[in-house]
Amino acid sequence: MISVTLKSPDTTSIVKIEKGELVSYQKNNEELIHQKGTLGWRNSDTEMFPIIGPTESKNFRISTPKGTAIQDQHGLLRELSYSLLKSSEYDAVFQKKYIANTFINNSKYPEKSTEKGLCWPYNFTFFKKYEITNSSLKISFELQAENKMPFMLGYHPAFMLQGNLDEIVQSNNQDISIPNIIEGGSTALPILNTTEVQLIKKNGFNISIKTMGFNNFMLWTEVPTMLCIEPITAYPYTDGELLSKKLFNKSKGIDTFEVLITPFKII
Predict the structure, then answer these.
(1) How is the subunit organization of this protein annotated in UniProt (predicted)?
(2) By three-state DSSP, how is residue 95 classified?
(3) Got the DSSP string for 231-265?
(4) Which of 77, 235, 240, 241 could bond to 190 as cystine, CB 3.0-4.6 Å?
(5) Dihedral, CA of residue 94, residue 98, residue 102 and residue 103, to nearest 10
């Protein structure tokens, strides 16, 4: 297993990464990340690419300028394995590489999907970089792909909650409660046209999430002890048409995105 530990210069922040996945971010010994194996979700973070959202209603087929792709929920990037390119005390860079039309085993098959293999008609290389400072954790993504390749991208981290249903997500001059998010169900609750949200808690560190390149968020949970705050390029259910073509970005050849996670306390 590829395991990396990063420590901030003042040693008050510790980040642990396993096979490219953020499994721990501790600030002053307080864990901020949902722990795998506990109630809520089997992961602690992942990426959604090249599509966001379910595809079953489209028979798992997505039309592209280079032909039809077979995609399950949230795409095939999560089915690929990260390789570690480099790491230091304060940062680490991981990579996933895909060759066009290569069939990738679908981990949802056969229990949750009828599709055994997934594919995409474009080559791409995907980089994920972690950088820890005394105040924050920056996670950067770089996509290298064929010019004008259509894609959606989402980052899907899960944060630990205290289980009292009293946390609030603040953004766009609105307060969103955990019960409201749970009621939103599997389609997740969207926060559109914003680059920042804050998770406000009764105790411990609050969390600010600022983004570059995403401009939208989804909020999802089914339990009171975990919350996924997901930066996304587009919300897949917009205008009543799932995965409409207008929701896809077009690659510039190299596209970059950032997520800045900052723990803070209100004085």
Answers:
(1) Monomer.
(2) strand
(3) EESS-TTGGG-TT-GGG-EE--SEEEEEEEEEEE-
(4) 235
(5) 40
**What whole-number distance in Å separates Cα of residue 170 and Cα of residue 34?**
20
- Report in angstroms the alpha-carbon separations of 67 from 100, 101, 105, 108, 261: 11, 10, 20, 23, 38
Structural domains in the chain, CATH included, are 3-219+255-264 (2.70.98.10)
pLDDT at 1: 66
* Share of residues in the chain with pLDDT > 90 (%): 92
What letter would DSSP give residue 88?
-
The answer, yes or no, to whether residue 267 has pLDDT greater than 80, is no
Bridge partners, 93 (sequence order): 86, 129
Residue 179 per-residue DSSP state: H
Residue 7 CA to residue 13 CA, distance in Å, equals 6
User: Where in 147-246 does DSSP place strands (E)?
Assistant: 150-151, 154-155, 158-160, 168-171, 174-177, 189-192, 196-200, 206-212, 216-220, 226-232
Report which DSSP code applies to 178: H
Q: Is the pTM of this model over 0.85?
A: yes
Contacts of 131 (CB under 8 A, 6+ apart): 90, 91, 137, 138, 139, 140
Q: How far apart are alpha carbons 18 and 105 in whole angstroms?
A: 21
